[in-house]
Please model this.
Amino acid sequence: MRIAHDASALGIDWPDGRTETFQALWLRDNCPCEECRHPSGQRLLDTRRLPNDLTISSAAENGTIDIAFSDGHTARFDAAWLRDGWAAPARRRRLWDAAIQCELPVGRYDEVLAGGAALRDWLAAVDELGFAILTGGPTAPGTVTRVAELFGYVRETNYGRLFDVRTVVDPTNLAYTGLGLGAHTDNPYRDPTPTLQLLHCLASSAAGGENTLVDGFRVAADLSPDHRGLLARYPLRFRFADADTELETEVPVLTLAVSGELAAVHYNTRSVQPIRVPDVHAYYEAYQAFGRMLEEPRYRIEFKLEPGDLFIVDNLRVLHGRTGYSESGERHLQGCYADRDGLRSKLAVLSR
Amino acid sequence: MRIAHDASALGIDWPDGRTETFQALWLRDNCPCEECRHPSGQRLLDTRRLPNDLTISSAAENGTIDIAFSDGHTARFDAAWLRDGWAAPARRRRLWDAAIQCELPVGRYDEVLAGGAALRDWLAAVDELGFAILTGGPTAPGTVTRVAELFGYVRETNYGRLFDVRTVVDPTNLAYTGLGLGAHTDNPYRDPTPTLQLLHCLASSAAGGENTLVDGFRVAADLSPDHRGLLARYPLRFRFADADTELETEVPVLTLAVSGELAAVHYNTRSVQPIRVPDVHAYYEAYQAFGRMLEEPRYRIEFKLEPGDLFIVDNLRVLHGRTGYSESGERHLQGCYADRDGLRSKLAVLSR
Model:
């Protein structure tokens, strides 16, 4: 490696032929000495206190790269860190469609509960695919929050720490029997929207009632660019109200990160309010196209939770629904919400 | 009011001279009958099942506006609802600077705890200004979560349901005495970032240690457009790691909504990782300018929490810090996180 510098920047010719330039302020800001960085990696110096006219006084390569600055400070950098040690870790994300039905990410309750590699692999599936299934668990009430606490923290809401999805089917009331639910984002009217949802099956003697999942990111990627653009451009209003609650947010169907990459899907035909966009006709065309693709068999997987089974979804990526079910028998699920930060933290710690 | 229609849309001439056009699909989608809408306002019909080629068969004005569609359904609309009943409620938000020091939003603990108008006004201040203070409360540990539960739900994290900010000052260790903390967003490395933070004072015998707050939205509005553009265009990486935790997110300093309006500020000089942008020099100029404005007296308010006092901030808008404090005495705060959805819901219900 060869280095060269002027007052404003350091240039490095890496052995692989690559050349890179580091600005004086960037180097000073990222000094790794114990005065500037806590062992945890937290920055101790306050970036805003660095002088704008900071310059490099000298630079030398002696195994480490040592740089003296005009503010009197000297920084010693590990060359490997400058080469690629400060880059963000690579992102795990694999889009999927119905073909994944043959290789569903399934963990065994006892193994995942024991922690270690089984828990790590189960969490890695959620991070990569946006969902995972757990089988062979107990049917005890409260199991769903116990699973959430394996990796994170339950997000309590007005529905409680956990909530029951229970329909003791009453054949005299046809409205509450057999109806399927289209793929949807849960609780889009919350700010922030829960990023993880868990659903655990306590009883399932009714015929039908398969759970359906679809990778909203896969479907969004297959939309026409015009439709994708419309769904990302206009916020929709989502709302839920009852006697004790009044929740409302505005968010587009497709939220893009500043990179242009898709960051979140919010689709919920039940709680979305009247759409207000300049060209209603064009918007409905895009909105319908996306909504219908979410129901297409080529994108959708189906599985039936047996008592003791559970699944978890990344609620801003994978939309969930259910098929219709029979008018006799019982179907009892318990659900709770949690967030990604705890899950990804646990996964990272288990992957060390 | 006069109405006219063709197959694709309904036109209304309002008595005030305004003219409006409603598309057939929009009208059908928003039919308010009990078959299409639950009393809660949730949509019962699934928008994606409506035919694309839906047309209006007839329309009549008889006090209500009655529309028959090609799918055989008839919708009856209240004219007042079509005129403005479906609009989003107006947004409360008032930007502030140091001048607000003379009219700080302060509630009395006993009154706010009793609920009703005092709680409503206190929550309204948080919604409008992004912060509020509570005085005269107890110094009992756990008070901070009790206050959060007045309006919402504690967001549990790896720091617990609540956490202690406690420095029993040890004059032999200068590093842990007297140091101020610049204005910052708390926990920017979480996904989602906590939207509310509460801090409650249990003991405060040390001189100094004033809390400082600054309206990040006010400061961002005063940035040059070039600087604002740079801070909104590139994500920064925020990270925190210890033995049991590894949290990391990518988000720009300024997050814009699709409308272009500012939606969130993330600024934390301690946990931000090395900046990776195309023009480092230009970016640092903008980043420093914003960071320094956050410290300017013209934007900043200061107040000292006495034992029993508490404040709450909207963590994605109002940045908080503290001045240095003396080396003798004790300063003990307890903090917790919560989220906006519960607060806004409670405020809306109390405002009914």
Notes: The first helix of chain B runs from residue 24 to 29. Chain B has two domains: 2-85, 98-350. The longest strand of chain B covers residues 196-204. The radius of gyration of chain B is 26 Å.
